[in-house]
Amino acid sequence: MADINSIAKQFTEFYYSTFDTNRAGLQSLYRDASMLSFEGQPTQGAAAIAEKLTSLPFQRVQHKITTLDAQPSSPTIASLIVSVTGLLLVDDGENPLQFSQVFQLIPEGGSYYVLNDIFRLNYGA
Amino acid sequence: MADINSIAKQFTEFYYSTFDTNRAGLQSLYRDASMLSFEGQPTQGAAAIAEKLTSLPFQRVQHKITTLDAQPSSPTIASLIVSVTGLLLVDDGENPLQFSQVFQLIPEGGSYYVLNDIFRLNYGA
């Protein structure tokens, strides 16, 4: 699964660097059928998802990936599920927050778009 | 997405209660094409996955679900992605461990099997 893992690595590096520097630029990764669950709140469609992501109430954010796993998600197309755990540094906060995020990536024209996106913060026990 | 959410809730309640009381019973949820990534270690196929799960080095375990999210994962079949975060109590340990787990469930004969399963412990920052 070397290829799957390198696709997952490239995608997540692009996704989080875009999130951290130019959130509006994430819209191109989603389509009309795309779904986002952000802390349990559902949103559908590229425009609505971009609106949701750009309206999150922080100015500066930095994602650091801790673990990254990927698996093929279909016997018929080259889609994949990518599961990330990591740390989120928000504004001038000194205590990073743990998060979990899952994507399903669908191949399209030599690249991929995000069909599924589920994000959760992980609060301590 | 009420239906999706109730399927996800039923599945995860069954999965974790089986895991915590009769781990070998999980084999019936997987098929030959099923994939498990457990702490980054890949396993494929129902028998190999059951062997992996039953050989995990703890005697007693209890899963507690903290968050549960589900989305449809295909435009053509009624499959779904289920994302769980929760706490794991192992043997007589007093400090629960946080975990993240992702499943893709595929419909089959009025029920579902697990095609994808990605499990990670979340260590503190």
From TrEMBL, chains A, B:
InterPro entries: NTF2, NTF2-like_dom_sf, NTF2_dom, Nuclear_transport_factor_2_euk. GO terms for cellular component: cytoplasm; nuclear envelope. GO terms for biological process: mRNA transport; protein import into nucleus. PROSITE patterns: NTF2_DOMAIN (PS50177). Pfam families: NTF2. It comes from the Eukaryota. It is found in: Cytoplasm; Nucleus. Has a role in nuclear-cytoplasmic transport of proteins and mRNAs. This is Nuclear transport factor 2. It comes from Gloeophyllum trabeum (strain ATCC 11539 / FP-39264 / Madison 617).
